[in-house]
Structure formats: C-alpha cells, structure tokens
Design a protein that fits this description.
Chain A: This is Pyruvate dehydrogenase E1 component subunit alpha, mitochondrial. Chain A: Its main location: mitochondrion. The complex is a heterodimer. By secondary structure, chain A is α/β, with parallel strands linked by helices. Chain A has one domain: 3-Layer(aba) Sandwich (Rossmann fold). The N and C termini of chain A lie far apart (53 Å). Chain B has two domains: 185 residues, Thiamin diphosphate (ThDP)-binding fold, Pyr/PP domains (Rossmann fold); 128 residues, Rossmann fold, CATH 3.40.50. The chains are: A alpha/beta, B alpha/beta. Chains A and B meet through loops of A and strand 16 and helix 13 of B.
C-alpha cells in the first residue's frame, strides 16, 4: 500500500484544518499566498465529497502514470531522456481545476501529467514514451515532446516555452476568446533571459498569460539557493503581479489559479504564480536525486507535505470514504495504467518513412547518401 | 609546429586497444573496434582513462599551471552530468570551479567578458543542443571582438566545451552536431577530438589558444572509449589533421565519434574488397587542414567524407568544394558525402539516420567502381 510505503504520520499533517457541515460542504484552510502588487485569494475554500474524491483519483493517476514510466524505463523499454513529476501533482491537478479545457497550457519537459490532465489517454502517453506509432507524436518525440488539444508541449530547451506562452496569449486577446494561457517553467528556467523578455511583452500588451514557476527547489542538480539571487520568484516580474502559493496543497493551487485566471480575463495583463513544490525523484532518470540533497530532506517532504496523503487525510478525517474505498480507487488506477502500458508495449513501431514526414508541410525530397537512395515523397 | 615541448612526434601510429562496447548502435558488431590512437612520447607515465577522465585530466593540468583558469557551467561544481569536472572544485576551490544558473546566453557572455580581462575561462554548455541560446554571444560577440575593436580587445583565452552527437537514444535535443554553424563563423576555432589521448592534447591546446575555441566532445565515447593516456602535460596543435591510416586507393575523411565508424568501414573495404583506404581525422573543423586533405586526394583521386550532421550545408560540403577547387583534375569519381539525413535528429529512427559503417562501406564501393 502506498500509505504504508510512505509511512505517513497523520500528526505531521496537522496544519490542515477542515470542518464538515451537514450539507456535505467541507471548509478547508490552507497557507495564505504571499502577494505582490495584488490582494490574492483567501486562505480557505469550501469543498465537497465529489471534488475530494476527484482530486484523490486524479492525483493518484498522475503518480501511478509516473511510477509505470519509471518501471518501463528501468526495463529499458523507455529510452533516452525522461523526467518524472512525482511529488508535484497538486500543481497540475489544482491548476487544471481552476481553468477550462478551452484555456491553454504550455510547459517544459516534465510534461506527462499535463497530457493526462488535458485529456490525453495514458495509452498515447506511454506509446509516445515507448516510441510507438500510437503515441501522441507518432512516437517521433518521446518524453519531452508531447502535445494534445490546447496543450503546446512538452518543450526540451530550458525556458524556451515562456515567450511562446505570451504569443498564445496574444492570440486570445486579439481574437477576444476570453481564454488564458498558462506558461509553466521551473526555478531553474527562471534565470533564462527570455523569460524576462516574455514578462515585458506580456505586461506591455496586457496579455492574458499566467506565468507559473514550479519551484521544486532544484534546477537539475543545483539548489535554488546557489543559482538564484533573491529567492522570491513571484516578485521577479517587477511590474508583474505575483503570488507565492503552497504548491503541495491542491486547494491552495486551485484558488490561486482561479484568482489568476480572473485577473487575466479582467484585462489586467499577466500574473506570476510561484508554486512552492518539490520533486521526490531525480531531475531525470540518470539522476539518483540524492547527491545534491539528503535522503532525509526528501523523506521529510514526503511525510509532511505529500499532496495525495494530504487529501487522503481530509477524506478520512471527514469520513467521506474509508481506507478500503480509497484503496479500491488506487487499485482501479493501477489497473488502468497497467492495461494502458500493456497496450502501448504491444503497439507497432512507426513506419520507417516517418523519418522524413513533418519536416515541412509538404513532404520534400530528403537527400540520402546517394541521390538514387534519397527519399522521394 | 608543436607548442608542447613534450612532444617529439605526433603522427607516429600505434594501434591501441581503444574500443567501444556500444559498437552496435549503428548496426555493427558489438565486439570492440580497435582504433589506432597516436603515440605521445615523453609525456610521462600513462594511466588508463576514458574520454571524460582524459578531459578532466586536461582541465586539471590547465588549472594547475594557469592560476587564471576557471571552470564553470551548469552543474559542473559537483562534476557535471558527464563527470568531466569531477573533483576539480575540491582541488581548486569554489571560486575557480562553480555552477552557473541555467542561462546559456549569460554563461557565454560572462565567459567572453572574463576572457577580455585576461582570465582563462573554460565554460561548459551542458549539451551542444543547448548552445543555441548562446549563439548570439558566440557568433556576434566572441567571434568578432578582436576584429570590431581593431585588435584592442579580444576574448582569445575563451574555450567553450560541449558534448555533441548521437548517444543512442538522445532524441531531438540531446543528439545534434552543430559544428557547421560555428565553422561558418570567421573568428572562431572549432575542435572535435576522437580519442581520449587526442581529447586531452587538443583540449590543452584549445585552452591555451589565443583565439576563442568551441570544443565539441563526442558524448557517445565519454565512457566507452578507454586507452592509456599520458598523465603529463602535452598539446596537439590545432588546424592539423591526423592521417590515422595510410592508403592509396581512396581518401576517407571524418572527425569525432565518426572516426570509429569509418575505421570499421575501412576495415570492411580492405578485407572484403581489397581496397586500400587512407583515413583522415580532421580534428579541427575550423581552420581545417586543407593541405593534408589535398595531398591525400591528389594521391588517391577518390574521396568519401562523413559526418552525423545533416547533409545539406554540413561541413562535408565545404570540404568537397575545396577539394574540387584544388584537385579537380586528380579526381577519378564524384566526391561522396555520407551524412545524416536532412531531418531533425530523430529518436526512434536513429539507427536509420546515422551514417553507419555499412552506408560508408557502400559508398566506398560505389566510388571505387565509378
């Protein structure tokens, strides 16, 4: 059992306070966001059984997806570069619940869970990772090149997606769609120059873009403390409003997301959300994740701030479901991911000609070693 | 023209057991491929090193002898993702070996400024695929500093190291070979080593070179290439190719990780067809050793050039153009380029994409019967 494995100490989760009313509404308090140039959302929310179960299920799916990826990688079925999201689930789940599927998201290379939250099937995600024809990018990209409706990837170059987010947001403003764009980046990417170019353009033209800094404390193997002057990413936009949010509490993320989306839709221009979160795993599969931080540090976060255990505790405290019922949900999730990965493993590899497709709109001749052996569409 | 006074002879050949355990990545046999490395004489005792250890050893010597040498880049403090800088911070302190934020443009610009002040910056860009945010700084600032100030300022002591090339499953952003972009820029020197011994000597020469050098390291070989490397201080001059193997029928030109593939093709051509191939390791992409190539082509009349980067606009095109200018009447067959396809570097199709020993063998065969 996951809960046994994590050895969760319920007393350690003491900062969560919930109050159930007779109508089935549950009040939940969380750490108030730090604010910059704005008032920010309140420090409490009202939730209910359906939402709690939904968050529990979604975040369990996110985590299980990554656990299966980890297993497939260790079996050498997934190759190359692969970055897992384990620990950061509340950010994805909370933000997705704060916006609609017509809003837009662009992120960096830790992208598997965003695919799932945007509505892609686990099978197409696994198939992409396994380089299969049924993958979301026809198996051509792999881990960091995933795309689906209103989700613009999956971007491997650190920070490069942020100006794209501003461009996507400009189109929303120009076309008066009323939709917003979430441009995600990490604390490592926060030091890339192009992020500041994007801040300026977005602010200058009042673009509906929410810049989201997922601060998991480490840019690859370098601690934020050693890479970043000043430690507040939410104030770094200078003239851009910001919030610092407890990114391990899905409700804190949701409320901040709603506040930011309303801010943008009201025409106030961009806003920055710094998500105080943590990744349990290494930067990538080749990083054991404990050379630049201690095992104790990782375990401490797991035991005191885990986003899924957090929700489990609320559910149990309010007697919304029993441990057995939650275990059944986890079993269903496990089954879903297992079946999806089996299907993906059984799927065919892409046709060889796919090497030459999608280079340009029209298929063009691609020169091989000799002219006669070149690819001709 | 050797600057390292420890070297007597650079071109003498000695076959060493330099081999790869991942030789079958391009469809070839998985048995070790002997690659003839060069002999460095009088560089002191030797020690078994792989490519990253040889590079580490080179930087160690550079820092020990030049108190102004500094090493920095993303994660280099704890050894770097490929372990090239391991132990250097402990030895030389955190003020000379340090991590930078993830900001390639800033790293390059910072390094140029530091070099202009007379320091010896050895900057690392974690993957050659990440060098493009720094492209402006390298091409517009580093390459032109000396020229646009009429010689008043320069960043000649700058060296930028970066791992390049196919690695098995790197995909679009961890596999590219961008040497041609930089070779196209006057003011820069571009170096790519092919063995641990070569890597150490060329790196020391690059660090001490008084023009900015982009030093691309074949990441496929960091661990797989192992040989006995002299632990002393030696340099291999830039701009000089190495004739790895002499031959009379056809000239084969490559660099970096491709040298091992070419040796395999050359061995096949000799064993199966009795063709005598002359194999040249270009070592320096810019300025490249035109004379050694021309001399060889005038002797053989046939040429195959091979690199991983896409064919169109690749460095083989530059070499081909020069060969036809200088050796037109000596050519017996069209110059062949065996390169990557004109597509982004693929993930799943890497084995189809890479110019492996079989493609090179076919090309040698065709060129011979033309």
């Amino acid at each position: 059992m996951l809960s046994n494995f994590l050895k969760v100490n319920s007393k350690a989760l003491g900062h969560i306070r919930t109050f159930a009313s007779k109508s089935g509404e549950i009040k939940h308090n969380f750490k108030k966001a730090d604010t910059y140039l704005c008032d920010g959302p309140s420090d409490s929310t009202v939730t209910n059984k359906d939402e709690l179960i939904s968050f529990f299920t979604e975040m369990s799916r996110f985590r299980r997806l990554e656990t299966v990826c980890d297993g497939l990688y260790k079996k050498k079925l997934i190759r190359g570069f692969c970055h897992l999201y384990t620990g950061q689930e509340a950010v994805c789940a909370g933000l997705e619940s704060a916006i609609t599927k017509d809003d837009h998201i662009i992120t960096a290379y830790r992208d598997h869970t965003y695919m799932l939250s945007r509505g892609a099937t686990p099978e197409e995600i696994f198939a992409e990772l396994l380089m299969k024809e049924t993958g979301c990018s026809k198996g051509k990209g792999g881990s960091m090149h995933m795309f689906t409706k209103n989700f613009y990837g999956g971007n491997g170059i650190v920070g490069a997606q942020c100006p794209l987010g501003a461009g996507i947001a400009f189109a929303q403003k120009y076309n008066k769609t009323g939709n917003v764009c979430l441009a995600m980046y990490g604390d490592g990417a926060a030091n890339q120059g192009q992020l500041f170019e994007a801040f300026n353009m977005a602010s200058l033209w009042k673009l509906p873009v929410i810049f989201i800094c997922e601060n998991n404390k480490y840019g690859m193997g370098t601690s934020q403390k050693r890479s970043t002057a000043g430690h507040d990413f939410y104030t770094r936009g200078h003239y851009v409003a910001g919030l610092k949010v407890d990114g391990m509490d899905v409700f804190a993320v949701k409320e901040a997301g709603k506040y930011a989306a309303e801010w943008c839709r009201a025409g106030n221009g961009p806003i920055i959300l710094e998500m105080d979160t943590y990744r349990y795993v290494g930067h990538s599969m080749s990083d054991p994740g404990i050379t630049y931080r201690t095992r104790e540090e990782v375990n401490h976060v797991r035991q005191t701030r885990d986003p899924i255990e957090n929700i489990r505790q609320i559910i149990l405290d309010n007697k919304i479901a029993t441990e057995d019922q939650l275990a059944a949900i986890e079993e269903t999730v496990r089954d879903e991911m297992e079946k999806a990965s089996e299907k993906a493993i059984a799927a065919p590899l892409p046709q060889a000609r796919e090497l030459f497709t999608n280079v340009y709109l029209q298929e063009v001749p691609v020169r091989g070693v000799e002219f006669v052996n070149s690819f001709k569409p | 023209m050797l600057r390292g006074n420890n070297i007597k002879k650079v071109n003498s050949l000695l076959v060493r057991s330099f081999h790869s355990t991942v030789g079958n990545r391009s469809g070839g046999p998985s048995t070790p491929i002997n690659y003839p490395s060069l002999e460095i004489e009088n560089a002191g005792e030797k020690q078994k090193m792989n490519l990253f250890q040889a590079i580490n050893n080179g930087m160690d010597i550079a820092m020990q002898k030049d108190s102004k040498a500094v090493v920095f880049g993303e994660d280099v403090g704890f050894g770097g993702v490929f372990r090239c800088t391991v132990g250097l911070r402990d030895k030389y302190g955190a003020s000379r070996v340090f991590n930078t934020p993830l900001c390639e443009q800033g790293i390059a610009g910072f390094a140029i400024g530091l070099a202009a002040q007379g320091a010896t910056p050895i900057a690392e860009i974690q993957f050659a695929d990440y060098i493009f945010p720094a492209f402006d700084q390298i091409v517009n600032e580093a390459a032109k500093y000396r020229y646009r100030s009429g010689g008043q300022f320069d960043c000649g002591s700058l060296t930028i190291r970066s791992p390049y090339g196919a690695v098995g499953h790197g995909g679009h952003y961890h596999s590219q070979s961008p040497e041609s972009y930089f070779g196209h820029t006057p003011g820069l020197k571009v170096v790519i080593p092919s063995t641990p011994i070569e890597a150490k000597g060329l790196l020391l020469a690059s660090i001490r070179e008084k023009d900015p050098v982009i030093f691309f390291e074949p990441k496929l070989m960091y661990r797989s290439a192992v040989e006995e490397v002299p632990i002393g201080d030696y340099e291999i001059p830039l701009g000089k190719a190495r004739i790895v193997k002499e031959g009379k029928d056809i000239t084969i030109i490559g660099w970096g990780a491709q040298m091992r593939v070419l040796l395999q093709a050359v061995n096949m051509a000799e064993e199966k067809l009795g063709i005598s191939c002359e194999l040249i390791d270009l070592r320096t992409i810019q300025p490249w050793d035109v004379e050694t190539v021309v001399e060889s082509v005038k002797k053989t009349g046939r040429v195959v050039i091979s690199h991983e980067a896409p064919k169109t606009g690749g460095w083989a095109a530059e070499i081909s153009a020069t060969i036809q200018e200088r050796c037109f009447l000596h050519l017996e067959a069209p110059i062949q380029r065996v390169c990557g396809y004109d597509t982004p570097f693929p993930l799943i199709f890497e084995k189809f994409y890479v110019p492996d020993h079989l493609k090179n063998f076919e090309s040698i065969k065709k060129t011979m019967v033309y």
